[in-house]
Amino acid sequence: MNFFSIRNKIFLFYACTILIFLSLVAYILYSLFFNTLKEHQINYSIELANKTQYNLEFFLNSVNNTAALISKNSSILDELSSMDGLNKTDINTILENTVSAHEYLKGIYIIGQNGTVYVSDWGVNSEALIESFQDFMDLDSPDEVFKDSYTYKYHSSLSARTLTYTKHIYDYKNNVDYGLLIIAINYDILRELITTTSVTLENKMLVVDTHGETLFTFPFNAYLDEVIFKHPEILSQNKLRFTDKVFGAESIIVSDTVKYSDWKIVSIHPLNNILADIQKLFVEMLKMMGIFSIITALFAYAFSYSITKPIMILSSNMKEVEKGNLSVNVKVKNNDELGELTTVFNKMVRRINQLISKTKENEKQKSEMEFKILQAQINPHFLYNTLDSIRWMAALQNAPVISTMVSSIINLLKYNFSRKDTLVSLSEEIESVKNYIAIQKFRYGDMFDIKYDIPDTILEYKTIKFIMQPIVENAIFHGFENIEHIGLIEISAYVKKDFVYISITDNGAGMTEEELQNITNRKPSNKKYLEIGIKNVDDRIKFYCGEACGLSLKSIKNKGTTATFKLPVDIKL
């Protein structure tokens, strides 16, 4: 076993790190832990209590927003400004819908300056409502006031405890007071809000207004007013934190102002509860340190082994690849950097395999294409028919046309055998087709005709050699077979974006949809489209120009066939 192996290095590093860490923790526990943790625990307890304040402020902000929306409602302002009460039912409906949309609302009421009362439900006694809030109608009264009340004072069918929020509906631009908005808040919902955020704590909580009136206490049966009597500065100052005895227990008392109101929230945190938790935690930490010291060595070894095992497996497989074994595949077990490294290694091996296979396949296809091209160039049937035509022409007439026919054969053979370049100009390829057509004209006579529509500007564009003649040959042999009209072949070309399109169209027999699909999908056929014609030409174009290029077919039975070549404007081999 190599002492300086990665596994041993990781084991020693981890073990030494844990030993240093335990020593540091022991020092902290003996010198700094107690006071620091005590302060943190106090702050944590206070922070938990502050959640009640945050929730309470959020609730009051929602009430303020509701009041603001109502105060700015154009329909309500128009009604209050007219003071005729004609749209009272509509305003009542608006208030009713607002109460229905908010669970925390018991009711919403508006008292206009002319004494008209708008309510969210029918059970409100308007005179009793005005009497209950008469003191708030004067603009000199404080705006946005929360008041503890009971609905039975002004409601005939509801006797719930509520907190009422009052606000003047005031047009500051025109200096006009339209009336008083009153929102009755569900006291139980508000109390439940405080309970849900305080019930898990061991502290106590008190909410009072600036007059010292208690609004809420937690626990609900606790009498905490003595804190206010003993420390009246709570009502006048914003933030306070001090230590005092409450119910005989040393406690930390924290007070703060609740936003959106004149309330004070007071939280009381008994120190004995905080210290008890700290002491328990201190004992548990000592136990954990003892257990942790025992298992450190075993864990360090397991940790180092778990890291180095994938490395060893990967190293072993790399040696196999070095020997030439490209069938290896390492199983990925980890979702980390080592797992990513293993995945990349597997992809690299597969990619090497694919590249080797692709290279072999490309070489094979290239050899086959070259053979098929040569085979197509030395077509025994074509040579036989040509020589047979020459023989019959020579036997039947002594005409100069025989010289022309022989010249076409010579030019065609020179183009096919003499030139070894893969790329030729479009004009050269067209000239080869013309020679081929001239020969076939001697054989078939006026059975067919041919037209060319190729702009001079693209005649010098490069194309792949010997791709047009097989298609023209198919048009003559198969397209014009058994037709009663004169055949016509039209060859056209044009440039679109970065591609040259060459079309060969005939008016021959055409193909059915099934026959066209068989040729497109390269299924066996009784015709030789797939041998030296379409298949070979399409494969050669894709091989040299890429999969985006190639040969496409369109055909209609008894109408004809169109073959279209798609080639790059600038072909680079």
Please specify the SSE layout and strand pairing:
Blueprint: H1 6-31, H2 33-71, H3 74-82, H4 88-101, E1 105-112, E2 117-119, H5 126-132, E3 145-150, E4 161-171, E5 176-186, H6 187-198, E6 204-208, E7 214-218, H7 225-230, H8 233-236, E8 240-246, E9 249-257, E10 264-270, H9 271-322, H10 337-377, H11 380-396, H12 401-418, E11 423-425, H13 426-444, E12 448-453, E13 462-464, H14 469-479, E14 487-496, E15 499-506, H15 513-520, H16 529-545, E16 550-556, E17 560-568
Parallel strand pairs: 12-14
Antiparallel strand pairs: 1-2, 1-5, 3-4, 4-5, 6-7, 6-10, 8-9, 9-10, 11-13, 14-15, 15-17, 16-17
Q: CATH first level of the domain at 378-568: which class?
A: Alpha Beta
Q: Report helical residue fraction.
A: 40-55%
Level-2 CATH architecture of the domain at 378-568: 2-Layer Sandwich
Rg result: 49 Å
Q: Strand pairing plus helix content: what structural class?
A: alpha+beta
Provide the CATH topology of the domain at 378-568: Heat Shock Protein 90
Say how many strands there are: 17
Content of β-strand: 15-25%
Question: Looking across the biggest beta sheet, what order are the strands in?
Answer: 2-1-5-4-3
